[in-house]
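Team,

Forwarding the record for the chain on the shared tracking sheet. I've put the sequence and predicted structure together so nobody has to dig through attachments.
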Amino acid sequence: MIALITRAHFVGRIAVLAAGGALSVTSSTSSPKHPCAEMAASSAPDYAAWDSVVKAHVKTSEIRGIPLNVVDYQGVRDDPNFETFVESLKNAPTSGLGKDAEYALWINTYNALAIKMVTDNPCKKSLLRTKMITSIKDIGSVVAPVWKKPAGVVGGETLALDDVENVKLRDPKDYPADPLLHACIVCASVSCPDVALTAYKPETLQADMEANMRLFLANPKKGLSLDKAKRVIKLSKIFQWFEGDFTTKIGKDSVLDALLPYMPEDVRTYVSENKGSLKVDHFEYDWGINGPSPGAPGKGGKC
């Protein structure tokens, strides 16, 4: 099992890994449930509200030549359904539900709270001026990265994005983690997988996760591209950062072996026949926000 690490941790730590240094990051943002929260009646999260939000404010377009589902952050912030969904998470049951229900909860939660990070923190102050953020990483710092900041309350517990990704999704206690999660969680960035155009639901969870992986690998600008002439296959850096999730955790010899079932058919055939001689490369990761920054409330998209 590889160390629990987020996409952001890799950016500054690749040199450590290359040198063979051990990297172990534990999440410390999650807080114990308040006694009153234990007594509060649990209620299912309002997936209909989240479904309405993504259908209304996520549209297929492109940014810097990369096709993706673009988020209208200002539209999300102004939509009462967004607040309804976030509020519904506060008393949501979070354990003992089974993989499909729990993964639906945590994937929807991660994606909504990543968006909320941007809508709540659209501007960044410096000594000289205040300007709009261009990346979710602008919300944090080297000392206090955004992934470790409190992002929301779920089931009475205050959680950071890091907690949702690395504890709830990548290290569940009651069932094996599913690497397909990496095609479903969206860290508000261009090179992330796309925000799904519907809410994840327990009854269709597995099919939706598989479909999202296929969509991600069908995107030649950030998911997968194949250059047969050079015998190079280029993948998202997500598959480099979380290589262990696609290999040792699920008994696969390589990331390519794990991804084969989800590749476009022509690519799958070629890779199956030539994977031993293919060079694996990775796209540069575009951390820019996957939609126009919303700006400060009441400022017309400005700070």
